[in-house]
Amino acid sequence: MSRGNTVGIVGAGTFGTALAVALARAGRAVVLYTRTPAVAEAIAATGRCPRLPDVAVPAGVTVVTDPAALAAAARFVVVAVSSTDVGPRLLELGGVVDGSHLIVHAIGALAAPDDVRVSELIARSTPVLRSGVLAGPARPDDLAQGRFASMVVASAFDEVIAEARRLLNLPPALRLYGSHDLAGVELASALAGAYTVALGLADGAAVGVGPRAVLVTRAVAEARRLIEAAGGETRTFSGLAGLGNLLVRGATDDDPDYCLGQALARGEPLGERLTEGGRAAVAGLRLAERRRVRMPLLGGVAAVLSGRVSVADAARLAADTVAAEE
Amino acid sequence: MERWSRARSRRRRRCLEYVPSPTCVSEIKRLESSGKDAHRWRELAGRLGSLDRAALAAELARLVAHYGQDIVGNFDPRVYRFATKVLTPGLGFLFSPVRSVRGGVGGLLAELDSRIQVEGPLELLRAMAERGTLVVTPTHSSNMDSVVIGLALERAGLPPVTYGAGKNLFTNPFISFFMHNLGAYRVDRRLRFELYKDILKEYSTVLLESGYHSLFFPGGTRCRSNVIEPSLKLGLLGTTVTAYGNLLAEGAAHRRMYVVPVTINYRLVLEAETLIGDYLAETGKSRYIITDDEFSRLGRIVEFLRKILVHEGAVVIRFGRPLDPLGHEVDDDGASIDSRGRVVDLRGFFAGADGAVRKDEQRDAEYTRLLGRKLAAAYPRESVFHATVLVARAVYDQLCGAAGTRDIYRLARLPPGREVPAADVVRGLGALRSTLAAHPEAGRLHHRVASAGDGAVLDDALRALATYHSHPVVERVGEALRIGDVKLLYYYQNRLAHLPTEARS
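Output (structure tokens, whole complex):
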């Protein structure tokens, strides 16, 4: 299969593997890069990825452990690693890709060290100019099982949107919408994770459907403020990357962010299990402070994560602040 | 010529759908609003509905030829080639007629030529001009820019450039003779319909593809407020990306293009009063074209040249390091380098999924925006601040501190003749120096400012600020400085408006 028709995926985590499986099942050419040789060996030996063990990886997925092999095989690259790992992975990728590559990332968080959007990090770390983001409520399980899922691809470049649709659309299983609001979709996707933690907290504390609805609507309101301050379009949060994500993930018992919220509500310690949504809450709040945007809900999530306040206090505090100010 | 006809047929094929109708509407409106006869356009508009495709194409071809001729004007490639290749360095064809005029404006201009200061990596740029096509992109604050940049290019040993000059420059008696022969083509900014803009862009693209060094003011019009242009209109700058893409598609990857950021830094600006007046009267909706400013009065230009530009270093033209058409920096060999310092091949950025170079206007528009951002970041870094700007900022800071506001509209309503202590201003100058030293990306001091004490800088600035404009901007009254024109004070200090806020305390 030609380089132009091959999808390269960086990261054999749950999303990266599920996307690779879905594409390969549809007969598309896929190269999956993992930096961990043990993962590649496990897939070769058992036909299953340790991060998504319930799903068989079709033979059509070529697994590589050399990023140069990925760059040589695919022009269109999807980066699907965790936000804590994205810095080094992009530097590594930057050494092997060139101006002909297109990169979209599927990371629902901001990136270290200074809470930048991942597309900004792509610009800093790689020579690639045509980049974008893939976001929305496509659960790895749904993708891998071929169940209905939708995502949005956002980029300043029509070409990136068109290529993402040509290479990743898998109707009826996966449908891609397009947007030019790159910054808006990246922030919406990160904030949706943070508010998923908030929904987990609320449901874990059994606040009831009324307060839950208030939480969702206030989340939409404050997210729109931050997105606008950061140069995105306010309506973007109402789309797939924001509200779409939140409605699906906040009702999914195996979603890591939702589970984290519920565990904290039960009084379990955070320990080592900080999720992308949790990190996004902390990073989003720092961004909001720099931009002088009020975000009481996000502040509440961050305060619980830091252990400074109890869930009950945070809920009361956030509700009081929101009601007093809006 | 061959490229031009190819471009015109490309345009004809593509554009039948936007045919003459919007053009007619726009031209009728323009002519009738200025009391002129528009019956030819009315007649054409009436016929349009009944024309078939072939007749429509013929009308469009006629319009393209008409506006194309208007743009091209007297530009003669032979003259351009003669000036670029034949004349010995140091003998500028463009400016030689000036020196033959004894006294008057010509003599002053010869004087000006010796007074302007040209800085930057000139040797590198001369090498780039040999290696590829230069696209010179200066900041724009005065109509004098057109003259000054011409002199600067010659002084720097760089080739002459083609550029689109506003039609009003051609009617100015002082400057028109500069314009006609060398490289200048006419841009009529009153014509705002798409057809005209597209013809203009096509012409510029063809010039660049053919290897003519070019100049664009990416800020569009003269900057009204005197801030260093933070956002650029881009306009014709986009033709650089288009032209480069076209060359790549032809397999001519060796034909490189280099975009050169340039700042033009004046001790005082000829049209400052009109520009800031216009800015404050209509912030956000400034007049796009001003025809009745200081520049239209020959006496004012002579006075400006006599009083202001005879100071050594009264205009500093600073060239920055060149960028490629996508905004990458280039190394000393002219190769593009990425943010990590590695050489990149530009062809890939224009390639489609099959690896072949692909035309894509939306992609090129986005690349142009990236280039614009890089230029906007280069301008402050390459700016040179005169004593006038530094002192205006220090005085303004004191005034704002005393008045409790930085809002110019509120300051302008204060009673005239406010005074600030000169000693405080001198201290403020010291603070501004430290801030600039800590932020090299915000610009640099004029060499005379850098080597003088704060008291001397104040005296030097007051000499300029108190004498040229209709009213003294600032003048010394005993131990105090009296502000005579707060709007002009605001105008000059705006050049430092991008300085980080800690300097504002």
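The beta strands of chain A are 6-10, 29-33, 48-49, 52-56, 61-64, 76-79, 102-105, 131-135, 149-154, 174-179.
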